[in-house]
Amino acid sequence: MLRPELAAWLRLLLTPGIGPESARKLLAAFGPPEAVFAQAPAAWHSVLGTRAAQALETVPTNLDAQVQRVSAWLANAQHHLITLGDAQYPPELLQMADPPLLLYVQGDPQALHHARRLAIVGSRNPTPQGESNARQFAHALARAGVCVVSGLALGVDGAAHDGALQGGGPTVAVVGTGLDRVYPQQHAALARRIVQHGAIVSEYPLGTPPLRENFPRRNRLIAGLCQGTLVVEAAVQSGSLITARLAAEQGREVFAIPGSIHAPQSRGCHAL
């Protein structure tokens, strides 16, 4: 990506008061970000209103630093930035109400276009049987030619990624931080393996720390990338059930593995 094009995309995303919805309206009205910023403020006003148009007139103070940071990150051949409308952008995400404008990808972008993708999600504190189930299901699915998608979290997510890799298949991790950091740190070695045999994906800018509010939001991408979602273990109030609900709302298949009637981690699966 050329530096002026990159700067225009980042300026659109970093401008305070311009959220994803407003950005999509501007792109629909004027075309790519470079064309957006070539417009007169009156044109922005006609699409967004006075306050947002005024916000667009000011260049974000951190823009130059972020452009340099992303440019340096992209110098690595394993690092990619996919924009909305790019040929490499996963078409499934375009069916969502709020597709990300940018996807940061580390690894092979083609993993996002694998013919069959299944999300495996579940508890961060699974029972030993639940963790084993996640690993065994992912292993068998990978051997059957399915790309396993999960969130790189502790517990079921990590077991699913590991099982898929052991089964010889690609796996995709969708994370809630910037891709210049690994969270949780315990999965640093696992993350390196995923990059070699799949991809790690984030919609969040480089430098984004592990903020609590980002993880439920990233769950919509896990569900959106896949034809189905398998819940291995989950409490009734859990992020895994959010992912299952989002998958169902998008018309995707939802599966659940039953467990012990005495295990709190199985109550979400039984509720499904």
Structural topology:
Layout: H1 3-14, H2 20-30, H3 33-36, H4 41-48, H5 50-57, H6 63-74, E1 79-83, E2 102-107, E3 117-121, H7 128-143, E4 147-150, H8 156-166, E5 171-174, H9 188-196, E6 198-202, H10 214-224, E7 228-231, H11 239-249, E8 253-256, H12 267-271
Parallel strand pairs: 3-4, 3-7, 4-5, 5-6, 7-8
Antiparallel strand pairs: 1-2, 2-6
Helix pairs in contact: 1-6, 4-5, 7-8, 10-11
In words, what does this structure look like?
Helix content is 43%, strand content 14%. It contains 12 helices and 8 strands. It has helices spanning 3-14, 20-30, 33-36, 41-48, 50-57, 63-74, 128-143, 156-166, 188-196, 214-224, 239-249, 267-271, and strands spanning 79-83, 102-107, 117-121, 147-150, 171-174, 198-202, 228-231, 253-256. The protein has an 8-stranded mixed β-sheet, sandwiched between helices. The relative contact order is 0.12.
Put the structure in a nutshell.
The protein is α/β, with parallel strands linked by helices.
Major beta-sheet overview: 8 strands, mixed
Q: List the total number of helices.
A: 12
SS-based class: alpha/beta
Secondary structure tally: strands: 8
Overall shape: elongated
Descriptors for this entry?
272 residues, elongated, eight-stranded mixed β-sheet, single chain, alpha/beta, 14% strand
